[in-house]
Amino acid sequence: MTSQTHPVDHELVQAAAHVARTRCRGDNHTMAAAARARDGRIITAVNAYHFTGGPCAELVLIGTAAAQGAYELETIVAVGDRDRGVVPPCGRCRQVLLDYFPDLEVIVCEDARTRTVRITDLLPESYVWADHQLAAE
């Protein structure tokens, strides 16, 4: 599988970086996420770290977006506090993002190279939850 990169939404990266810089404090909130909704709005959120597995910023963002009436997200990025920069989603987030938004684009960074890829490129040969549900009778 060859992953194709797409243009980076720098405004989205800046929004997440701003939230990480201004809202992440201490050990409870260490990551910020920003997503662009289909209608163009930018929605932001922070993680709620807890040793029991508190939700990542990307998962908090899904709920925040829904609370604001944004059910279709096009692009997402996560940025770490203390100037850690763009951080790729963890495995759990990759699976949830794929299930909620199978056409989602994700901004990632590797070796100081920021790029945008489809969520399916981050989770190849993935399990698609909806494909394994029993049909309602």
UniProtKB/TrEMBL annotation:
The keyword Plastid does not apply. Transmembrane segments: none annotated. Residues 8-130 form the CMP/dCMP-type deaminase domain. InterPro entries: APOBEC/CMP_deaminase_Zn-bd (IPR016192), CMP_dCMP_dom (IPR002125), Cyt/Deoxycyt_deaminase (IPR050202), Cytidine_deaminase-like (IPR016193). This is Cytidine deaminase. It comes from Streptomyces doebereineriae. It comes from the Bacteria. Pfam families: dCMP_cyt_deam_1. Keywords: Hydrolase, Metal-binding, Zinc. The keyword Cell membrane does not apply. Coiled coil: none annotated.
